[in-house]
Amino acid sequence: MKKIGVVIPCFMGGDITLKLVEDLKIFADLIVLVDDKCPLRTGKKIKKKFNEPKIEIIFNQENLGVGGATKIGFDFLLKEGCEIIIKMDADYQMDPKNIPKLINPIIKKECDSTKGNRFTNAESLLKMPRVRLIGNTFLSYLSKLSTGYWEIFDPTNGFIAFNSYALKRINYSKTDNRYFFETDILFRCSLENININNVSIDSEYNNHFSSLQPVKEIIPFFIKNLKLLFKRIIYQYFLFDFNVGSVNLILSLLFGLTSLFYLIFLLLKTNITNIYTSAAEASFFSIVSVISMQFFLSFIFYDCSVKVFLRKK
């Protein structure tokens, strides 16, 4: 049986986190709670209640954020020889009873990692507060584009599992220390072609605190996702590889820039000479624009289907 470790980054956890740890004990061989300068003193409460070898408490001297705390937990569990490593949030939105379902594809070697997905069950979605649903949906589509995991949804979901070999391949030390960690680690996974499966899970929101406000984070996440998208394109299509998708992207940009500059030329010509654009000129602009769009759609098709196929091969 594989050794299973769980990391719980904890800020504003409180009594609900004590219940989480209690319910986790039957599913995990080792639990590490990283008290991220929690004002509710959750780490000390757990240390007092659970004096057991399988439960480890790490106290951060300063608040590092969910990403920073998770990375400390990852380091600890890898050093302890855990073969499957799970990250869970301290607010008990995710039921530990989902752990067997989450890790089963990894045990069967169907994939390297799994991620919980709350967007596959209509009843689960109806439980989600409307504002969070809108924010999470928007962030999910941004994440698909920036990470290349078109088949993965629900990027802000903190319920994720790795086999130790895959986690060691990921340069997770460079990931974001705050809420963007969940998306950033997917980006790092994509650079290593880590095969990640969706796992349908339910979630609970009643009386559970979460400091993440998806709508408030849309603009910061949007900017960070654009940066990831640019880096992913450079790495996956020009530095690490040059493929059909690279050719499609280059041709799309060339034809797109040609149509843009030609449009500017036509507007300037019309403004200076007061001569309207001819049908031939308008047709040339339209044809070049359509060709650019066709090459761009071919690139998107390659990115969201061919690369996914190669990753799962």
Itemize the secondary structure elements and their pairings:
Blueprint: E1 4-10, H1 15-24, E2 30-35, H2 42-49, E3 55-59, H3 65-79, E4 84-87, H4 99-107, E5 113-117, H5 122-127, H6 130-147, E6 160-163, H7 164-169, H8 181-191, E7 196-200, H9 218-239, H10 244-273, H11 279-312
Parallel strand pairs: 1-2, 1-4, 2-3, 5-7
Antiparallel strand pairs: 4-6, 5-6
Helix pairs in contact: 1-2, 6-9, 8-9, 10-11
In short:
The protein has eleven helices and seven strands. The protein has 313 residues and is an alpha/beta fold.
What does this structure look like?
Strand 2 (30-35), helix 2 (42-49) and strand 3 (55-59) form a beta-alpha-beta unit. This protein is elongated. Helix 1 crosses helix 2, helix 6 (130-147) packs parallel to helix 9 and helix 10 packs antiparallel against helix 11. Strands 3-2-1-4-6-5-7 form a 7-stranded mixed beta sheet, sandwiched between helices. The model has no long low-confidence stretch (mean pLDDT 90). It folds into 2 domains: 4-237, Spore Coat Polysaccharide Biosynthesis Protein SpsA, Chain A, CATH 3.90.550.10; 242-312. The chain has 313 residues and is of the alpha/beta class. It contains 11 helices and 7 strands. The chain starts with a strand and ends with a helix.
What composes the largest sheet? 7 strands, mixed
Structural domains: how many: 2
DSSP summary, beta strand count: 7
By DSSP (H or I, 4+ residues per run), the number of helices equals: 11
Gyration radius, in Å: 23 Å
Q: Report how far apart the termini are.
A: 26 Å
* Uncertain segments: none
Summed over residues and divided by their number, the pLDDT gives a mean of: 90
Query: Looking at the structure, what is the overall shape?
Result: elongated
